[in-house]
Amino acid sequence: MAKLGCPISVCVFVFFHLLQLFSYGVGDVLEVPTFNINQQSLLQYLYLGDIKIDLPALYVFGDSYVDNGNNNFLPHSAVANYLPFGIDFDGKPTGRATNATLAGFQYPPPILSMSEADRKTTRTGVNYASSSSGILSENGRFLKMNVLNFFQQVDLFENATLKDLKSSFSSKESFTKYLSKSVFFIHIASNDLGLTYETATPKYSPDKYAELLVEELSKQLQRLYKLGARKFLVNNASPLGCQPLNINVKNHTTSCVEEVNERISIYNKLLSNSLTKLQSTLSGSKFVVGDLSKIFQDVYASPASYGFKDVNTSCCFDSNGTRIQACAPNAAPCEDRKGRVFFDPFHPSESMHFLWARRLLKDSSVCSPINLIQLMQA
């Protein structure tokens, strides 16, 4: 883990790997910069040099899309701590299930890597995400994996971070202000809506299942609010029916597996309505929906305009020589990674993450009711 090497006015752009990025338009092409680009050059490259934001910290919750190493500390869990993961990050795996992480900035450390001393002094944020986890505790169980579900992640925020960090503040008021200005980023539900739904007992209808997920998610968001959180960015679910895994193992007559995408759509609509309701009832709160589903759909509709040549093929082979499971250790991935939407059968490439973040920052068509810049400035 890199040491904190930038002032907080710069570090605010380290939204895990998300807040490092920006774009003028929706369909333009801007390549991921090189690994060793320095901070000043990166900000100039992304036209971010004159933006002023007072954001003290970023707290990240979720699954493998945002896990940057927590599962490395959990026995019998899903991990991405071996090559080819991280191959474009100076050739070193980071725990993230993709090919790179942009360099030059501090991003929230995984909570399970932190000592008590770290928890008392780290004010720039923490990552609680766990690969293969979800809203429900069932996630990971059918694969006999040990993961942190969303409830447990919030437990860690309350019983580890808050307990230890508050002692470093001079007053209760200053700590309360710090939490209210920080951003809480949640990317969750993909695993619930994927394999967990398909193996669930008893079997739910897509509508009832979506209601269950949104209800449980809402409980934990309200819990975070009671603990002091006020600014929330919550991603909806991406169109899982277009993942390489589902395209390769499920019957379908269109380019994607629409049965899967239909239940994603049901959940996303309920999520948006729920967040609107929460903001109207929780005083001083701001809930923003990151429309990851639309970002993927836009790319599928016009891949070339976003710099992509392959939208539905895994960049790596698994141990069986297929493209339907996690990358085989030390297996060479495809060479055209910049033009791929997916790195493995489940997770986006760094190029796709780059686009995802650029659009959330300023594009109101995928970030509402306000964009991410506005949320951070609020």
UniProtKB/TrEMBL annotation:
Molecular function GO labels: hydrolase activity, acting on ester bonds
Leader sequence segment: 1-27
GO cellular component annotations of the record: extracellular region
Broad class of where this protein is predominantly found: secreted
Keyword Hydrolase: yes
A Gene Ontology biological process term: lipid catabolic process
Subcellular location field: Secreted
Pfam families: Lipase_GDSL
Keyword Secreted included in the entry's annotation: yes
Bilayer-spanning residue ranges: none
Record key words, sorted: Hydrolase, Lipid degradation, Lipid metabolism, Secreted, Signal
Family: Belongs to the 'GDSL' lipolytic enzyme family.
PANTHER family: GDSL ESTERASE_LIPASE 7-LIKE, GDSL-LIKE LIPASE/ACYLHYDROLASE-RELATED
Name of this protein: GDSL-motif lipase 7
